[in-house]
Amino acid sequence: MLEKFTNDELKTLVDNQKVVLFFSASWCPDCIFIDPYIPKLEKEFNDFKWIHVDRDEHMDVAQENNVMGIPSFICFDHGKEVGRFVDKDRKTYDQVKDFLNQVESKL
């Protein structure tokens, strides 16, 4: 999972491939809850480039994508948003997997 990037690098990645943006923060208990499951999800949905967006380090990216709650997931396919799981609630492995399966079924 990519964790360090500039905004220009992020835009290039989002515009040129299938991407999952995973928004979180180190202080967020719900993010800490889902974090151990991310590597498994990343392996299961490896058609996507996974990018971790630390909401505190990249507040501008969160605002541009209307991410008001974390953890959140946004999927893009060559620059087009194809899925959004954004709210302030805790997310389980099964909920995120179901979301990603729905996204894949539309592609």
UniProtKB/TrEMBL annotation:
Thioredoxin domain ranges (all copies): 1-105
Coiled coil regions in record: none
Protein origin, superkingdom: Bacteria
Stored InterPro entries: Thioredoxin-like_sf (IPR036249), Thioredoxin_domain (IPR013766), Thioredoxin_H-type-like (IPR050620)
SUPFAM superfamilies membership: Thioredoxin-like
A Pfam family hit: Thioredoxin
PANTHER family the record matches: THIOREDOXIN, THIOREDOXIN-1-RELATED
Name of protein: Thioredoxin family protein
